[in-house]
Amino acid sequence: MFKRALYSLLVLGMAAPALAKVDAVDGYVRLLPPGSPNTAAFMVLKNDADQPVKLVAAASSAAGRAELHTHLYKNGVMNMRQVESIEIPAKGEVALQPGSFHIMLFEIGALSEKSPMPLTLTMDDGQKLDLSLPVKPIEPMAGMKHMKH
Question: Which of 17, 148, 26, 45 is nearest to 101 (CA)?
């Protein structure tokens, strides 16, 4: 009886699909000038599972709402557009970065480099990542630091 129960547990355990393990690395929220009500969060999402997983939602207690966005180039103009999900490939990663995928944070109160911003990410398999992201100022574009006017 014990052997059969143990065997059943092992078989069921092997048959049940495991949640993808998604990690967020190098995350931060962009510090904007005072009075700017919106900002963005950036990071690299890594998926160690054998199947792709999708980021389907983001939320923060410090924002009125959070949306998944990307940038599209159309007729020589860059436009930002909301997307329903961001796929993280199996055994791969996706970079959320300026000019690409990112998380828009709307209706932000005061931001400070001294206080991290809470952010919860939800995947399509039910996994949630609770993050505490540092707030960083906008970095000058490469080569712009040393330009003289």
Answer: 45
